[in-house]
Recover the amino acids of this structure.
């Protein structure tokens, strides 16, 4: 019976083959791990986007007509409007209903909120009170990251789109400051997703047009 062992050359060949197989296996495993991480990151980004759109829709569609506020400087502000200057420049601010109060706190069931693009993040400001004072700082939370632009348009009673709200007539007719548009169109340009457009019909307008 031949009991000859492996020669040095045979061992070197075996080691070389094992090294090649190990390298191929590691490369495949690394690729699978990378793909899994990309898929997980994509799912997380999609979940964040869906959550942000849902929150924005919930707030805007519950906007309430007839409830303007006084800001921290004592100035009257419309029920809904778009800031054009100041610390909230570009923000969409409005009063919304449906502010849940499960613990029965001594507060209203309506809430003042604002959405603003700030340093690439879409943030949501919310105030605990409607009529603010100087030290009424909002609670601010990031709802969507990597946002390149945030634009808003308002559908007026003549079914025309405008970039500002309230309508110009409200300067001569102050009572119109408590009115809301028929719909609000929000356009977000989000890195990795592109341009996303959503149309939100005001709840009060749905009630008025429902037979």
């Amino acid at each position: 019976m031949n009991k000859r062992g492996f020669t040095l050359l045979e061992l070197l060949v075996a080691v070389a083959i094992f090294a090649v197989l190990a390298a191929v296996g590691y490369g495949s495993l690394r690729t699978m791990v990378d793909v899994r991480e990309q898929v997980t990151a994509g799912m997380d980004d999609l979940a964040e986007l869906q959550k942000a759109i849902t929150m924005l829709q919930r707030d805007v569609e519950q906007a309430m007509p007839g409830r303007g506020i006084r800001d921290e400087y004592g100035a009257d502000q419309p029920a809904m409007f778009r800031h054009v200057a100041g610390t909230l420049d570009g923000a969409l601010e409005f009063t919304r209903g449906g502010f849940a109060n499960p613990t029965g706190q001594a507060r209203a069931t309506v809430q003042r909120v604002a959405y603003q693009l700030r340093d690439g993040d879409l943030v949501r400001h919310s105030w605990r009170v409607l009529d603010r004072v100087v030290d009424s700082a909002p609670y601010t939370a990031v709802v969507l990251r990597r946002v390149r632009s945030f634009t808003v348009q308002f559908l007026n009673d003549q079914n025309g789109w405008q970039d500002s709200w309230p309508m110009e007539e409200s300067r001569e007719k102050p009572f119109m400051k408590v009115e809301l548009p028929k719909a609000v169109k929000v356009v977000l340009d989000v890195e990795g997703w592109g341009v996303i457009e959503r149309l939100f019909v005001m709840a009060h307008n749905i009630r008025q047009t429902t037979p």
The domain at 52-209 is CATH 3.10.610.10 (Pili subunits). The two ends are 99 Å apart (CA to CA). The helical segments are 8-61, 203-209.
